Amino acid sequence: MILETFTVGPFAENCYLIGEEPAVAVVDPGAESERLFRRIDEAGWRPEAVLLTHGHLDHIAHAAHVAERYGIGLRIHEADLPYLRHPQMPEYGGYRPPPEPEGLLEDGQELAVAGLTLKVLHCPGHTPGHVVLIHEPSRSILVGDVIFQRGVGRTDLPGGDTATLAHSIQQRLFHLPGDYTLYPGHGPPTNLEEEREENPFFGRRATVRLR
To answer: Which of 8, 24, 136, 178 lies at a C-alpha separation of 20 to 30 Å from 95?
Structure first.
């Protein structure tokens, strides 16, 4: 399986290329799309879709660039459509309005894309329509900005809600059986079991809890 990380833009956002060669999906292209194009074209890969974990501008600003370059559509959860249609910072570097989605990401959906099957899990709180993408064969989850290595997503932006995010992490992610590698929207990968135990907002040895 292809799984490559590109850390892009002023907010050091992680964009991912995932798939089975030669097909790839582009997850959260927030900036520096020319870097993605060079890698995709040099490798001879065939992009099939743009997948958006949520609608914040640092994750979607270059979705239009990728969609137009390769003639592909994008998908996002319905609750985050307002972020596509009414961006909060349209002056963000290189931003172009993304096209209307060719489909939506729905909770529980088994999405077949780029030679993979990804399970969609709705985990709101950072935004109303935030989703994570689970690849069971590799025990990997693209978690966007829900959870980070020893941290959680911010909830002080429009559409954020602290109690909802806490519920998503505790009742959705932490209830998944076993361990997974988590690939977040910012920062390094981490592991689900480590975050269950050691995340300072939720871990069993925590001294600070999100309220």
So the answer is: 24
In a domain, 209, yes or no: no
Residue ranges making up the domain that contains 136: 2-198
Please check whether residue 210 lies inside any domain of the structure: no
34, 86, 25: which is closest to 56 by C-alpha?
86
Query: What sign results for the dihedral spanned by CA atoms 24, 28, 33, 38?
Result: negative
8-40 pLDDT, tens per residue?
999 999 999 999 999 999 999 999 999 999 999
207 domain-assigned: no
What is the phi/psi pair of residue 104, to 5°?
A: -110, 150
What would the pLDDT profile of 73-127 be if each residue is shown by its tens digit? Answer: 999 999 999 999 887 776 677 888 899 999 999 999 999 999 999 999 999 999 9
Does 132 fall in a domain? Answer: yes
Asked whether 75 and 51 are in contact (CB, 8 A), the reply is yes
The C-alpha atoms of residue 187 and residue 14 are separated, in whole angstroms, by 8
Residues contacting 13, CB < 8 A, separation 6+: 7, 28, 30, 31, 58, 59, 185, 186
What is each CA distance from 169 to 61, 162, 199, in whole angstroms?
26, 11, 11
Express each pLDDT in 127-136 by its tens digit.
Answer: 999 999 999 9
